[in-house]
Amino acid sequence: MSKYTKQFKVQVVEYYLQENAGCALVARQFGINHSIVRHWVRRFQLRGADGLDKKYSHYSAEFKLSVLQHMWLNRLSYQETALLYDIRNKSIVSAWEQRYHSGGIPALTPRPRGRPNVMSPFKKTQPAPVKTDDSRTREELLEEVNYLRMENEYLKKLKSLSSGAGTGSSVTQKAQLIQELRQKYPIAGLLKVAAMARSTFYYQQKIMLIGDKYADLKEHIRTIYARHQGRYGYRRITASIQQSGVAVNHKTVQRLMTELGLKSLVRIKKYRSYKGHVGRIAPNLLQRQFAAQKANQKWVTDVTEFHVAGEKLYLSPILDLYNGEIIAFNTSRRPVFKMISEMLTSAWSKLKPGDRPILHSDQGWQYQMPAYRRLLEQRQVTQSMSRKGNCLDNAAMESFFAVLKSEYYYLTKFNNVEELEKGLADYIHYYNHDRIKLKLKGLSPVQYRNQPLAT
Q1: So what's the pLDDT on residue 263?
Q2: Which residue of 96, 149, 155, 384 sits 20 to 30 Å from the alpha carbon of 46, by its own alpha carbon?
Q3: How far apart are CA 436 and CA 240, in angstroms?
Q4: Are 157 and 177 within 8 A, CB to CB?
Q5: Residues 403, 102: Cα–Cα separation, whole Å
Q6: From CA 179, how far away is CA 202, in angstroms rounded?
Q7: Are 427 and 404 in contact (CB under 8 A)?
Q8: Do residues 448 and 454 make contact, with C-beta atoms less than 8 angstroms apart?
Q9: What fold characterizes domain 298-449?
Q10: Conformational region of residue 389, where left means phi above 0, alpha means psi within -120 to 50, and beta covers everything else
Q11: Rounded to whole angstroms, what are the CA distances from 126 to 123, 129, 130, 133, 204?
Q12: DSSP state of 334
């Protein structure tokens, strides 16, 4: 990289501050990289013009270790750490970290500067005489036996721990073993067996005492996930946590859910019951315009099928596109027209004077019957139908059935149809009153409808 004078750096920073321009624009103006501009501005804001001077420093091993420990404890980046300690090159911090992990504190010791001294002629020295077992004292023999016992026990525990984890032993695992055995053996001997520096051991102890800073948030996530029986993904869980007054980012929730092994459920497609032209086909007035400006403006309906213990149960609901609320529903053991007519009777009670909704459905045989059209005409409800074989025209109703089956039906074991019928009523109440939707500003359908400004 080309060298720049302090005067040039100050000129670039002052232009950035005075013109209120972005780093990219300033970089093009002066013909330099935008990351360099951003780096100079940060140094100027933190340390003034002196932060733009060249700096040649000789860092001790103790200083390097303190920098790394602060970076790890506060989860800082290399650049943030370099700015904090006035280290002009962030890559130096990265190099320190790599050296420490590979060789501990000795690897951080700076090398002597200058050229090495001329080596003196080699002088042959007499090796120290090796003591035999007969010449060694009783204390020396006991010390060696104790050291070998300590080494043997440490290596056995380390081997079992590494094989159980499926990976090689880490610094943390070694520190845990030393802590476990220090009540039985001297810590100096254990550090020697583990080839670990004393400062490294105490740093690992400090890290273990700090604990998991996300422990409370993880427990909050587990609680919400269990309350909704695995139906919420990370987006809805984030919204629920934020509603309780806790500020949290959705990416953090997603990462923690991955660590906890929590995952929202997969949707499965629904049953369809098109039987061809058996009556009159209405035009597609909805035209996939699934947004409504007020309640009772656009309704959608359909029928889905459930299987329990060799029996079938059919569900026919009406969904209001304003807030996604199920305003009426009915169940039956057989797909008869009475199920549809009773559902409509229940839905009429939700209409206010002047309400004239569009009721959209597929081309199922129930919706082609003259009796169905007469019930709609009596309440001045406009009929709309999807095009033949096009499920996307009624995607809102399809989506509700997918949610219902993936969040409730496929997760629950039923002994008979009666249990399923009661459970469907409970789930629809939960869906309307408790289950939040992100597109409804984190509110449930009923909460959204009951807002002061809702109509």
Answers
A1: 79
A2: 96
A3: 8
A4: yes
A5: 51
A6: 10
A7: yes
A8: yes
A9: Nucleotidyltransferase; domain 5 (3.30.420)
A10: left
A11: 10, 9, 12, 21, 42
A12: S
Instruction: Tell me how far apart the alpha carbons of residues 360 and 281 are, in angstroms, rounded to a whole number.
Output: 12
Asked if 200 contacts 171 with a C-beta cutoff of 8 angstroms, the reply is: yes
Identity of the residue numbered 118: V
Task: Give the architecture-level CATH label for domain 1-54.
Answer: Orthogonal Bundle (1.10)
CB atoms within 10 A of CB 154: 20
**58-103 pLDDT tens trace:** 777 777 887 887 787 777 788 777 777 767 677 888 888 888 777 7
Tokens coding 107: 């690897």
Query: Which span out of 29-33, 66-70, 84-88, 194-198 was modeled with the highest average pLDDT?
Result: 194-198
Return phi, psi of residue 306, to 5°.
-125, 150
- Angle between helix axes 6-19 and 23-30 (nearest 10 degrees) is 130
pLDDT tens for 118-144 read 555 555 555 556 556 666 787 877 888
In what helix (H) or strand (E) does residue 100 lie, and over which residues does it extend? helix 90-103
- As a whole number of angstroms, the distance between CA 401 and CA 85 comes to 58
Q: What is the DSSP string of 227-292?
A: HTTT---HHHHHHHHHHTT----HHHHHHHHHHHT--PPPP-PPP------SSPPPP--STT----
CA–CA separation, 263 vs 250, rounded Å?
14
User: On the CB side of 374, how many CA atoms lie within 13 Å of its CA?
Assistant: 4
* Tokens representing residue 253 in the block: 């929730």
Does 442 score more than 80 pLDDT? Answer: yes
Angstrom distance (rounded) from CA 434 to CA 426? 11
